[in-house]
Amino acid sequence: MKQNLTKKIILIFASTLLFVFAALTTVIQVSNSTILDRYIVQNIYSTQSNIDVTLTGVFDECVYLQSRILGSDNISKLNLIADPAASREEKVQAFEQVLNDVGVGERYFVNVACEINDEYFFLNGENSIDAELLRSASSNRNQLILGNCSELSPTLAIGVRDVSTSFDGVFFYYMNSETIGELISVFEDGYSFVMREDGYLIAHFDPAYIGKSAVYSDVYNLKKVPSYTIKKVDGKRSIVVIKGFDKLNLRYGFGLYIVTVLDYATFYREIISSNLILLGVALAMFVILILLGIWQTKRVSAPIVRLNDDIGEMIENGTATPHVKHDEIDQLGVQYDMLMDRIFALIAQNNEDMEKQRKLELDALQMQINPHFLYNTLDIISWIAKMKKQPELETLVLNLAGFYRLSLHKGDKFITVEDEINIVKHYLQIEKISHPGRVTAFFEVEEGIKGEKVLKLILQPMVENVTKYAFPETGGNLYVRAFSEGDDIVFEVEDDGVGFEVADDILLPKEDGLHGYGVYNVHKRIQLEYGEDHGVSIFSEPKKGTLCRIRVKKLPEDGAGDAE
Question: Which domain holds residue 277?
Fold first, then answer.
């Protein structure tokens, strides 16, 4: 016993301690990771926002350049470029002079082109012209349009229709991809790239990727932006941060995103090291506490083992008083035995009292059944015997006999559903002789429950209320139903009589009317037998009739014996 108890306490202590350390270590690691994640995300988002501002300035330079080109000093040159009568050489010379005068920054633009009257002019050699970009710029005048990349250069276009000149064409600006690549390459342990919503790469630090589509389709997910995820990129665990160009997109209507891919190990190296240190410290503390726990467990279990040995010696030797040391554990054992003896005695006494109370309540409720029905029926028999002495007397006597034979049922508390229905039928036959034509009864009984046992005399008092109060002036219809519902049997007594307002205390005992002891008797007997969730429910409205629903529990196969 000593070894088993000590081992159990040590096992419980070690398991609890291990759980606490594991939970604490996990919480600390998650907290560190969460704090570091937030710090990393905020810094990356901040850097991406700075890139957004920088690239917006680059695109603004294109608009500024366009404004300088359309300046008043260049009106004559622009008119010459638009003049169909001018020679190609004159137009080229005028175009180059305009651009040289306004100053095209080579840091931002590698080439500038112009289309007017189906003629194309280039500043630094010919570049391909995106037909879709041309159509879009022609349809959206004075708006900066972003097209595909030409010779690795992102292309911008602005459609121009100048009222001060005869110029009506489109300018193309081929941006310097190296400059944009430098502007977005601000992370030492990773890289960024710029892409459209369709996955087309506008800018990348590696020129081989510019102008490609869906190169990183397994990396980015634009359904939730901004986003921060950790996934493998090119076989390496990486941090992937995606953010839209808020300022640039808002100003020019572009759908551009910046995707930053960073080396996971570089950013999480410190937290990984701190987690390893934390794990080592936790392991050392765990070993120390286990050793302390073993020592303390032996101290705690020793008195319990001693008490167990003393009790075992008492049982084996038959001595009245065990030989134990008088410490707290010994006293606890004695007091516990005394307490349990007292508790069991009180439980037994309480159960006995409750059973007596239950039987008394059932007997009292059974005695409350109104005997006036028997007396009234006997008066009717006497009257008919005196006046007619023929078939009515035979019918009355037979039904009265059947009624009491079934209701008394040799003192049994339970009868079948079929017998309970037959009691009602005998009662209605007697009532028909007393008040012919008042009540027309209809019965609907589920075939499968006719043999089920139920508490007797729970249906007839409800039918009696209908015959007494539902039809004070004219006759009416009475519907008696019996059916199963789950583990319950439900009786319904419904009439199309005068109805009434259902009071809150409808099921409490009263001396008069429908609220008398009959309904209360049935309801209380059912609850005492089956529980608080069974009993009588009454639903009625004035001039709309009354429905009385009685719910009881199905009894087991051996019937009333189990219920009692």
Answer: 1-284
